[in-house]
C-alpha cells in the first residue's frame, strides 16, 4: 500500500439533501445515522485507521450541526472547515473551489454522503495518485460513469446528463465519488481548470466535468479501481438510506429488518430460501419481449376482468366465465375469507393469510396430526359440519408442510360437504411442482362440483412473483360473480397482462422448468436427510419441511444464525399454529449449487448438536 503520510482528506458536505426530506429538515444528510453513527463519522474513522490525520470539510446546509457534532478533532483526525454559504445556488464544483487552497498536497477527495468499508480507501492508496473508486454499473445506481481498459485506465468519463435513452451501459462502471489525487496533478491540471470554470461563472455543475476533460485530453492517466466487491453506498434518497442501513448495520439487525420486508430481497446480498417460486422460468426471450413493450405497457390502460380471464383461459383451457383473475392469490383470499364467509375451517399449520383474512369469531382451526401432518378428511369434514361453516379451505401441497392431500380424498370431501351448503376452497398454488403435477388438479372436475373453488398462484409457478398474478376457477356462477363484484375495474396491471399474452408461446419451456424444479427439490431433500439433527418430511413441492431434533437450538435462532453467518434466509415456523412450532423450519429449494451451500451451512451450524440420527422415513 502507498503511504498515507502527507495525504490530506477533503470532504464535501454542503448539500441540502432534498431527496431525503423530511429526515434532512433538521439533520444534514452527512449526519444521518447508519449503523449507530453519522455517515461522516464512518468516513473519518476509516480515514483515521489509514493513518490520515488531517481533513477539510466543506459545509453549508446546517453547517453548525456538523461542526458541533465533529468538533475540531474526531477519531484522531484534525478538522478544519470551509463554509459554502451559497450552497443553495451552487453545486459541488463550487464547494471544491472554496477548498482549493487545501489542494496543495496529495488529496483523498470524498463526498460526505458516501459510506464505505476501509478496503475501498486501501485500494485507492495501493493504486497511487490519480485513481478513482468505481463499481460495475447496476440499474439502481445513478450518476457519472466511466469506461476503463483491461488494465484499469479510464478511457472516457460520462456525466449523468450525457446518458441518454440510447446510451449503452454495457461494461460501464459507476463512480463511487472517492478519489486519490496527487499534488502535481492537482497543481498542473485540476486546480487551474477548477479556477477557470468558476471564473467563467460555471458554478452549477459537478467537478467531475474537469476529470472528464482531463481524461479526454490524454495528458494524465486516471486509474479506475474496482471496488464492486466491497461494501459501499452513496446515500441520495430514502431507498439508498435503507440499502446503506442494510449493508452497514449489525448482522442481527439486518436479519430483523429483512425478516419483515415480505419481499424486495433482490436488492440485498443473500440467498433467499424463504420465498417459494420457480427459479427456472420465465426464459430470457419472454423478459426481453416485456422490456421491448415497456413504453406501451406504461402509457396504456390494461383491459378489464373479462379479457384477463380469457388470457388465463388460453393457458388453462378453462371457460373464461369460470375464471376470476386477481392481483395475486392473496387478493382473492382477502375477498373470500374476509367478506364472503360466515364461518371458515382451515387445517393448521397452513398459509397464515387465510386465518389473517377472517374475523377471529368466524375462524375455526383444524389441527393436523403433529406426527404426520397428514389431513384426516373424514375428521375434517365432521368438524366443518359441526361448526356449521360455509367455507372449508384445503391447501395442497400444503404450506409449510409441503405435503399433498390425495385427489380422491378431496373428491370425497367435496361430496360430503355439498350436502351441507359448504363451499370448498382448494388452494393449488404449488400443485405444478408436485409429483403428480397438473393432472392432479381439481380444475378438470369443476363442472361436477359447484361447491368447488380452485385457487392458483401463477406468480409462484411461473417465477413472476413481482407481477402478482393469481386466479380462481369455479363452475359456481353466483360465487364467481360475487367475487368479481368486489374487485376494482382495473385490478391487474399492464405488465401482468403482457406476461399472460406471452406465456402461451412458452409452454414447452415452462414444462421443462417444472421438471428442473422437481429435480432440485428432490436433491435438496436427499441432502437434508443426511443431517442427523433434522427430521425431514418428504416434500411434494419446491420446499422442504423440517423438525429440529436437537434440544440445543430452536428454529428462530438457527434461522438467524444461518442469515448472519452465511447470508442465507429460510423460514422458521414459530408463527405457525402447531405444537412446538419453534422446532420447525421451511426451506425453499433453489439451484443445486445454492442448495448444496445451504446444506453445508446447516451441517456446520448443527455440528456437535446431534442427538442421534432420527427416523426420516415418511
Outline:
With 618 residues, the protein is an alpha/beta fold. It has three domains: 8-241, Spore Coat Polysaccharide Biosynthesis Protein SpsA, Chain A (Alpha-Beta Complex); 271-276 and 510-606, Aspartate Aminotransferase, domain 1, CATH 3.90.1150; 284-506, Aspartate Aminotransferase, domain 2, CATH 3.40.640.10.
What report would you give on this structure?
The protein has 618 residues and is an alpha/beta fold. It has three domains: 234 residues, Spore Coat Polysaccharide Biosynthesis Protein SpsA, Chain A (Alpha-Beta Complex), CATH 3.90.550.10; 103 residues, Aspartate Aminotransferase, domain 1, CATH 3.90.1150; 223 residues, Aspartate Aminotransferase, domain 2 (3-Layer(aba) Sandwich), CATH 3.40.640. The chain has 21 helices and 27 strands. Helix 13 links the parallel strand 17 and strand 18. Helix 3 crosses helix 5, helix 11 runs parallel beside helix 18 and helix 20 crosses helix 21. The C terminus is likely disordered.
Amino acid at each position: 500500500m502507498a503511504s498515507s503520510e502527507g495525504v490530506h482528506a477533503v470532504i464535501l458536505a454542503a448539500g441540502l439533501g432534498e431527496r431525503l426530506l423530511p429526515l434532512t429538515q433538521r439533520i444534514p444528510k452527512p449526519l444521518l445515522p447508519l449503523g449507530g453513527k453519522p455517515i461522516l463519522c464512518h468516513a473519518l474513522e476509516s480515514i483515521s485507521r489509514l493513518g490520515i490525520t488531517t481533513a477539510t470539510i466543506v459545509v453549508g446546509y446546517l453547517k453548525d450541526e456538523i461542526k458541533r457534532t465533529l468538533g475540531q478533532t474526531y477519531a484522531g483526525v484534525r478538522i478544519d472547515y470551509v463554509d459554502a454559504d451559497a450552497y443553495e445556488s451552487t453545486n459541488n464544483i463550487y464547494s471544491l473551489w472554496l477548498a482549493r487552497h487545501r489542494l496543495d498536497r496529495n488529496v483523498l477527495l470524498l463526498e460526505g454522503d458516501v459510506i464505505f468499508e476501509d478496503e475501498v480507501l486501501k485500494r485507492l492508496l495501493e493504486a497511487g495518485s490519480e485513481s478513482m473508486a468505481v463499481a460495475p454499473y447496476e440499474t439502481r445506481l445513478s450518476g457519472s460513469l466511466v469506461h476503463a481498459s483491461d488494465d484499469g485506465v479510464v478511457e472516457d468519463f460520462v456525466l449523468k446528463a450525457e446518458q441518454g435513452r440510447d446510451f449503452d451501459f454495457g461494461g460501464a462502471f459507476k463512480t463511487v465519488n472517492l478519489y486519490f489525487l496527487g499534488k502535481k496533478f492537482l497543481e498542473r491540471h485540476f486546480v487551474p481548470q477548477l479556477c477557470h470554470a468558476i471564473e467563467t461563472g460555471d458554478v452549477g455543475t459537478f467537478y467531475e466535468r474537469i476529470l472528464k476533460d482531463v481524461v479526454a485530453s490524454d495528458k494524465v492517466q486516471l486509474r479506475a479501481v474496482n471496488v464492486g466487491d466491497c461494501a459501499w453506498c452513496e446515500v441520495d434518497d430514502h431507498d439508498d438510506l435503507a440499502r446503506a442501513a442494510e449493508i452497514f448495520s449489525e448482522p442481527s439487525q439486518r436479519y430483523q429488518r429483512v425478516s419483515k420486508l415480505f419481499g424486495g430481497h433482490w436488492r440485498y446480498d443473500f440467498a433467499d430460501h424463504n420465498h417459494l417460486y420457480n427459479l427456472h422460468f420465465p426464459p430470457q426471450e419472454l423478459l426481453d419481449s416485456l422490456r421491448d413493450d415497456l413504453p406501451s405497457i406504461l402509457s396504456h390502460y390494461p383491459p378489464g376482468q373479462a379479457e384477463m380471464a380469457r388470457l388465463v383461459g388460453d393457458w388453462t383451457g378453462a371457460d373464461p366465465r369460470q375464471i376470476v383473475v386477481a392481483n395475486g392469490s392473496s387478493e382473492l383470499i382477502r375477498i373470500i375469507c374476509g367478506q364472503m364467509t360466515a364461518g371458515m375451517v382451515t387445517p393448521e399449520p397452513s398459509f397464515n393469510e387465510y386465518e389473517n383474512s377472517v374475523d377471529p369469531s368466524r375462524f375455526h382451526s383444524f389441527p393436523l396430526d403433529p406426527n404426520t401432518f397428514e389431513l384426516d378428511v373424514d375428521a375434517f369434514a365432521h368438524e366443518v359440519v359441526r361448526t356449521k361453516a360455509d367455507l372449508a379451505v384445503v391447501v395442497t401441497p400444503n404450506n409449510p408442510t409441503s405435503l399433498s392431500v390425495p385427489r380422491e380424498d378431496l373428491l370425497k370431501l367435496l361430496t360430503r360437504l355439498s350436502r351441507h351448503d359448504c363451499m370448498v376452497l382448494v388452494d393449488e398454488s404449488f400443485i405444478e411442482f408436485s409429483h403428480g403435477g397438473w393432472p392432479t388438479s381439481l380444475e378438470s372436475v369443476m363442472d361436477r362440483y359447484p361447491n368447488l373453488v380452485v385457487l392458483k398462484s401463477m406468480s409462484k409457478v411461473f417465477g413472476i412473483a413481482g407481477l402478482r398474478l393469481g386466479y380462481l376457477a369455479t363452475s359456481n356462477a353466483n360465487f364467481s360473480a360475487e367475487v368479481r363484484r368486489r374487485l376494482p375495474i382495473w385490478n391487474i396491471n399492464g405488465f401482468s397482462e403482457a406476461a399472460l399474452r406471452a406465456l402461451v408461446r412458452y409452454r414447452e419451456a415452462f414444462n421443462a422448468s417444472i421438471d428442473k424444479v422437481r429435480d432440485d427439490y428432490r436433491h435438496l431433500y436427499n441432502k437434508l436427510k443426511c443431517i442427523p439433527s433434522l427430521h425431514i418430511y418428504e416434500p411434494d413441492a419446491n420446499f422442504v419441511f423440517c423438525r429440529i431434533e436437537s434440544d440445543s437450538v430452536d428454529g428462530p435462532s438457527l434461522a438467524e444464525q444461518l442469515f448472519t453467518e452465511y447470508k442465507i434466509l429460510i423460514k422458521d415456523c414459530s408463527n405457525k399454529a402447531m405444537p412446538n412450532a419453534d422446532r420447525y423450519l421451511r426451506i425453499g429449494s433453489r439451484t443445486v449449487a445454492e442448495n448444496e451451500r445451504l446444506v453445508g451451512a446447516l451441517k456446520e451450524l448443527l455440528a456437535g448438536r446431534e442427538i442421534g440420527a432420527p427416523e426420516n422415513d415418511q
